Amino acid sequence: MPAPAGRFTPAACYQAMKAHDIRFDGRFFVGVSSTRIYCRPICRVKLPRFENCSFYVSAAAAEAAGYRPCLKCRPELAPGFAASEASAKLAQTAARFIEDAIAGIGGGTAKGDADHPLHVIAARVGVTDRHLRRIFQAEFGVSPVQYAQTHRLLLAKRLLTDTALPVAEVAFASGFSSVRRMNALFSERYGFAPTRLRHILAEAGGASAAVAENARCFTFSLAYRAPLDWPALLAFLEQRAIAGVEAVSDGRYRRILRHVRSRDGQAICSWLQVADQAHRNALQVTLSPAFAPVIAGVLSQVRRVFDVHADPWEIGAALGRLAQGSRGLRLPGAFDGFELAVRAVLGQQITVAAARTLATRFVAAFAEPIEFEVTPPFTDLSVAFPTASRVAALMPAELIRLGIVAARAQALIALAQKMVAGELDLSPAANLESSCAALQSIKGIGPWTAHYIAMRALSWPDAWPPHDVGLLKALGLPNTARGWRAAEAIAEPWRPWRSYALMHLWNAQEKTA
User: Fold this and answer.
1) Which of 13, 25, 39, 217 is catalytic?
2) pLDDT tens-digit map of 262-287
3) Which of 93, 332, 462, 488 gives a 20 to 30 Å CA spacing to 309?
């Protein structure tokens, strides 16, 4: 008898399969007993009989039941989904550790040894490892180790399919400690060797185009749940783009990114580009070949910044009339928490344009140019945002001469020093309460700035910056204590998506300004 997948009954899952409804893509997977293959609900293969179908809440659960991934719909391309319940959120946060290559569990050896064992991940999300196993099993249908193994295998499959990387490099880029371990898991789960996959695809004529396209760089598709208001997302990022670091042009976002590898702390600086493929409901991500060792982490950053995990229908239903006509509005994230925090401090009580000018001066004064192994497809970006250690060593006078007021100059240096000392965590998996408290312990950073940083750097969906002038204007309320109490009452039904409500209100305010 088919098993239920999360909150969907088997019958509902089967109806979604028949409709190929993209809103269910990634919410469940279907295993077909007659073929021993599992698919996404949007797969266009011949519809299997209901009695041959079993439904699973994750790809890992389908593989644990003995199914192989479909080569046509490619389960590794399915979008994720944003969870709002407490236990689900904890499980999702732990899963992001794995996906970001922050936690390398289950791939070091056949016994599952790792650089970051389960108790370390549990400590990062604030629960015991026993509780994490329990909620992870409930959310995904498998253990964290099984989830990590599946994630590595699917990433390896993706790299073998879409790039010309040698098999050994694919193994290490996917988080395996050896080619032997990858080969063993491939054989155990899929029934063939990794090299056989390339032969299969070559015989089918499906690999040559992708490999040729990625000969000098990596190109991937990241699926999202439609609709996506790409122009609005780009406009938000363009208004805040720092010259030399990031830019928006011809409908594409591009930037210089510094990605710190969790295994050894090595920083890799290079370029990336993101464009919308609306006809496929996917983002096209082009990465420099320098990112080969950290592809998983960089792709996860892109997913977070462009909010591909969001479900616009679920969020729109909560926001009601506020979201009518613009359900595709997303919550822009940040590639680097420290960079976003600096921008937020620089932007206090001044316009977005003025903050961008200060940020550009800041970068020009303290950033170091990047030497590229492979020339990027653009020439206007050449520096990475200054590191926290670089800023922590500055004197206030060096910032003041750029036009930054003394109080903010001191706040920026204190912010950097807390980051360097490990007293402030602005990574996506950081604890919300402790990060906000650490931010507000810095003189010059108040609740509004802390909420804004949490909203974008920590991807907090329920931020509500106190006494925000823009949202009060958008709601037609006075900038008084009474007006703010009225705003909080209006926003209460929007929980836990008040950050999205804020984006709608800011967007409406900018259109009428």
Assistant:
1) 39
2) 666 788 999 999 999 999 999 999 99
3) 488
Q: What is the pTM of this model?
A: 0.82
Q: H-type helices in 308-375, by residue range?
A: 312-319, 337-346, 352-366
- 3-class secondary-structure state, position 348: coil
**Does residue 250 carry a catalytic annotation?**
no
Q: How far is 210 from 494, CA to CA, in rounded Å?
A: 43
First-to-last CA distance in the chain? Answer: 58
Percent of the chain with pLDDT over 90: 50
- Interatomic CA distance for residues 513 and 508, integer angstroms: 9
Q: Which one-letter DSSP state was computed for residue 492?
A: G
Task: Report the alpha-carbon distance of residue 198 to residue 214 in Å, rounded.
Answer: 15
pLDDT digits (tens, 9 = 90+) for 494-511: 988 999 999 999 888 776
pLDDT at 3: 46
Residues facing 272 on adjacent strands: 255, 287
Q: State yes or no: is 468 an active-site residue.
A: yes
DSSP 24: G
Selected catalytic residue, list 25, 276, 336, 468: 468
